[in-house]
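SUBJECT: A protein chain and its fold
Encoding: whole-number codes for local backbone shapes
Chain under study, with its fold:
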Amino acid sequence: QVQLGESGGGLVQPGGSLRLSCAASGSIFNINTIGWYRQAPGKQRELVATITSDGLTNYADSVKGRFTLTRDNAKNAVYLQMSSLKPEDTAVYYCNAGVLEPGTGWKYYYWGGGSQVAVAS
């Protein structure tokens, strides 16, 4: 079991910045990938950015150059620094962690409860 605690959502003006934080607790020893997805009203959930234990990042094309994802393994936390925010970034952002089960290699996915990010003037 992994629990993901999220913080940092809110309302920001276009062009502004916001930082989302996600802290993992529980059985966190085998988290392979952690990052953020988002879901806008009426749309499917989509990848925003993920980072592996080795520090390899993957960003959606829509956020490249504007968002930066970092990981603090000592704190079991990941941070999404969002800059130059646009109205189309408005969505509920969900922290996601992929966990590999020792021995079997089975992968489990865990989700945070969601943080609302609203970009509007």
In short: The chain has a mean pLDDT of 94.
